Amino acid sequence: MERGPANLAELRETRERHAARVLPPGGRGVERVVEAAGRSVPVRVTVPRTDEIRGAYLDIHGGGFYLGSARAGDARNAELADALGVVVVSVEYRLAPENPWPAAPDDCETAALWLVERAEELFGTTVLAVGGFSAGSNLAAATMLRMRDRGLADRFAGVVLQFGAYDLSGLSAGGKLYADEFFIEAYVGEVADRTDPDISPLYGDFGGLPPVLLVVGRLDVLLEDNRALAARLAAAGCEVSIRVYPDSGHGFTNAPTAMAGAALRGIESWLGEGVFGGGALGGGGEEGAEGRGYGGGAVEGVAEFSGMAVEKVPGGGSQ
Q1: CA distances from 227 to 73, 118, 242 (A)
Q2: Residues 124, 82: contact at Cβ < 8 Å?
Q3: Which phi and psi angles does 15 have, rounded to 5°?
Q4: Which of 77, 59, 53, 57 is nearest to 125 (CA)?
Q5: Residue 9: C-alpha distances to residues 13, 18, 186, 190 (Å)
Q6: Which helix (DSSP H) or strand (DSSP E) does residue 139 occupy?
Q7: How many CB atoms lie within 10 A of CB 173?
Q8: Are 160 and 267 within 8 A, CB to CB?
Q9: Which of 86, 158, 213, 305 has its CA 20 to 30 A from that of 125?
Q10: What does DSSP say about strands 30-36 and 39-46: parallel, antiparallel, or unpaired?
Q11: Helix axes 74-84, 258-271, angle to 10 degrees
């Protein structure tokens, strides 16, 4: 994982560079503001180009809690929507340091509750899943812990977590490896106990959660963090799979590579067959296969590289 900004000035410079990038036109995501539990949050909704809607997927973008946007994921979310026949709802959560914890998990919880309450009415489905990458995976895990505490975990059929950071306290072996990153200070600098599971999901009680897929690169500094989370999930009786990809660093599924394409096809197959039913519809095309998005493909695509590992977790569920 590349080093992030070292201070607030560098953080703002990084934001400016990202803001200067022109996003490709023609995104299918439709902006709307949704409400639940007395709160509101902006989201982008992408509807599949299919006759049947199989489910709804809550997407939580990455960016170290201080960067990124739902709009930036329009192309990827459209490919996922078409490949699986699902509505993708990407949440535009508030960013740190202007809006530190708990603003981001509050926003993600609001979007999740809205889907629980309105997905059947609006999209004709009750099959829900949630996923994120990097900081978004931290937020996805925290969101599912909140759903479980509300007695709503069973409304979600699966969780996909890509290379997340799950211990912002820096107390675990994995957390120590990135404890000096400034994004943590920007996000939870005023919080005394960073082992709160809403901040560091590694310390949560994972009983009652739906099946979880973790995807991470072997060269990612967050690898041990992901292995630790997988072990904790398994110990709680959760059905969990962790897929570790060789020669891959942080954020590798965002790159236009064959390795990313294999990982994305594996995610698609896991969701299509285990969560939404019926496997993939296809339609991602060559662009998806090269890693620029989600394309068609069989589950064996996850194992086409030497060194790829689907790790067995003691006490865990199916792999």
Answers
A1: 26, 35, 8
A2: no
A3: -60, -45
A4: 53
A5: 6, 15, 11, 19
A6: helix 135-149
A7: 11
A8: yes
A9: 213
A10: antiparallel
A11: 50
Cα–Cα dist 280/286, whole Å: 15
Asked if the bond preceding 102 is cis, omega within 30° of 0, the reply is: yes
In tens, the pLDDT along 32-51 reads 999 999 999 999 999 999 98
Whether the per-residue pLDDT at 290 is higher than 80: the answer is no
Contacts of 241 (CB under 8 A, 6+ apart): 211, 212, 213, 214, 270, 310, 316, 317, 318, 319
Whether residue 25 has pLDDT greater than 80: no
pLDDT at 308 exceeding the cut of 90: no
Q: At what angle do helices 135-149 and 103-123 cross, to 10 degrees?
A: 70
Closest CA relative to residue 1, chosen from 184, 270, 240, 205: 184
The span from the CA of 269 to the CA of 291, in Å, is 15
CA 65 to chain centre: 13
Nearest-angstrom CA–CA distance, 179 and 188: 12
pLDDT at 298 over 90: no
Q: How far is CA 57 from the centre of its chain?
A: 10
Q: Which residues pair with 213 in a beta bridge?
A: 160, 241
